[in-house]
Design a protein that fits this description.
The protein is of the alpha/beta class. 38% of the residues lie in helices and 17% in strands. It has a single domain, classed as Nucleotidyltransferase, domain 5, CATH 3.30.420. The strands form two sheets. Strands 5-2-1-6-9-8-7 form a seven-stranded mixed beta sheet. Strands 3-4 form a two-stranded parallel ribbon.
Amino acid sequence: MAWRIGIDEAGYGPNLGPLVMTAVACRVPEELAAGSLWKVLRSSVQKAAGRSATKVAVDDSKKIYSTARGLEALERSVLAVLHGRDSEPDGDGAEAGNSAWSSLDQLTHLVAAICPSHDLASESWYRGALPLPVAAERGDVAEAADRFGACCRAAAVRWCWFRSVILCAPRFNAMVERWGSKGAVLGIALAELLQEVVALPPDEPMHVVVDKHGGRNHYQPLLQDALPGGWVLPLEEGMDASTYDVWGLSRPVRLTFVPRGDAGHFEVALASMISKYLRETLMTEFNQFWQEHVPGLTPTAGYPGDSRRFFTAIVPALERLGIAAEHVWRER
């Protein structure tokens, strides 16, 4: 068996709401280590949303979700994958039997399962009470989950691990102030995930694919800091791909950074979708909180332009509630 890992983020550009970065991990037979999971799982998976309510749509999250399309297709697919994951304990340390996954019918349960080390309790707007699913039909989620799970079992594709890092404004701003760069935030979130990824048992070969961070081509220093127990060797560094082998760990590890990784790598697309879904559900609670304190306030997605309109409208409420502006507004 071999590990396939995908990592991607959502919410890097906004001024409001959290940045979410997610890693997903599956174990596959060695002959599928570099194959297309879209082809292997085609009886339960589609690349475009809307064709079938009983198939999981897996693609760049921007193609699955938009404010015009709504949350339904993204939500059905993400929840179906999470519910359809391995439900039997591995006996080898993987978290397949973790009781946190027993129910995902509320936002707090999803957050606890996918981001157990979160600091959302310090956010004034977070309650975790949002019922799930928000837009998808429960029956459609269940049917898609059953179909996806059965297809994965038949192909010996085991989705063993999902993990997100959630960075809200206070921590985001503190990182930018300390390191003087917004890009450093992505590097820190990636390092947190990689440190957990390389420790996943069992010690089988691992290939990690990461959606490129903007136009950056050189990742060796970042990776060396994240994985001090290994020696990071660059194989190629360019616009099309930056690839590294890590020597000295308990298993062979290769990391590849590619632009538009969510278009060509199933596991990166899935990480993109989970990040987006988690951010959107968190933004639902963010908007609900501020609408309670500012009647008539139109919700925001948090992106530049509209974020300034929203923030200006909530400033009096911030002052009334004693919430510092930097605890809500991301400076970069």
